[in-house]
Amino acid sequence: MNECKIFHLLIITAILGFASGCYLEFSGTSFGYDAEAELTGDVAVEEEFDVFEAHFIHGEIRVAGVEGDEISVNATAVVQADSQELADEIAQDLELVIDKRGGRWELKVEPKSNKFSEDDYSLHVSCTVSLPSAVSLDLSTTHADVDVRDISGFVEAATSHGAISLTSIEGDAKATTSHAVIKASKISGNATFTTSHANIEARDITGEEHTFTTSHGDVKLDDIRGTFTVTGSHSNVEMKLVAIDVGRSKVTTTHGDVALFIARDSDATISMTTSFGEVTDDFPGDAEFRGEEDRGTLTIGDGGGKIDLVTTHGDISVKSRD
Question: Is residue 167 part of a domain?
Fold first, then answer.
């Protein structure tokens, strides 16, 4: 990526969320009346920038990389208040501001006047942000989703009780959440995905080293290259691989099954260990299995890359994906 200027997007007064993108919410108070406002904002980026940051609470955000040199925001704001008159008044007073201060870009959705107290209303803002694709992203929120696509830099996305979706990321990708799924595809760099009480679903991941961690959720991997580590608890793990790259990968889980589907022409050494379960070798051809009912080693081709499959209270199986 070209040397760039840091671009920061901070959501301070509203909480970004999805209607077409992000969802902002200010207060947990329940109000009986609501009013809506459509808001837009655009700003030309005169210099290239490296990092786009968004850190907020209770809000979703959708970021899409595009060609061009403009940052564009489309938002729908919903104001909730104790009376229809107050909700209408606040909605009419809202403005969307994209402001640059000292190398930092700031996005605000708030009333223009200061006569309203935050205790008087709650604010929900749904938005979509598009920006030049040649950036890196650092995003965080809670109780909301993060959706990112078509970014050529690295992406770090963190939330809780919200799903994370990453598509077409050329750099490294790090995603952290809980009680919600992580889905990723077409990641060209290293992947580090962590969640709990939810699944991880990843496909077409290249790069050199990857880490997938969950508990009380399953892991499903398809076409992962490089070495990887999978750690689960009360988790089933399913992998469909074209090959096992040179190096050592490891899958460890408890109270769950491990299933590996691998191409027939692979070169791999697969170590399998379980307790309170069985090891099953259904791989066709000249693959050599040595072991017992609960442990063993399967050698395919010349041995090639190595992978260790370990579980307790679960079965392990290796099959051809062809």
Answer: no
